[in-house]
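Data deposition worksheet. Section B asks for the primary sequence of the deposited chain exactly as it was used as input, without tags or linkers unless they were present during the calculation. Section C holds the resulting structure in token form. Section D is free text for depositor observations; keep each observation to a single sentence. Incomplete worksheets are returned to the depositor.
Section A, Depositor: J.P.
Section B:
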Amino acid sequence: MEKKIIRTNNAPAPIGPYSQAVQFGNLLFISGQIALHHASGELLTGDIKDETKLVMENLKAILTEAGMDFSHIIKTTIFLMDMKQFAQVNEVYGSYFTSNPPARETVQVSGLPRGVNVEISMIAGI
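Section C:
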């Protein structure tokens, strides 16, 4: 099996030596996304719900490029700077999974790229 790099201009370009996503067989591994506008490169911080929505929209753009959607998600990881924001993040995140949500873990971390409050990565399968 060969790995296939997934790249879209509708999500932020990587800010380091990694790919937006890699497909290997029937699995898609999506790198952690932050609240970065793909067109302007501007970072959105402040309101955790707005940040989370932009993160989810960036993930959606990558899924779309791979011919998938949120129903294909098997597992997610949510990284939070402050676990006190979990309920707000969970509310936005949950709105993208109307049935059969994926497995998930949420962890509080001491720092995230560019000082954001939330980062989410995903694994999808077809």
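Section D:
The chain is about 20% helix and 30% strand.
The chain has a mean pLDDT of 96.
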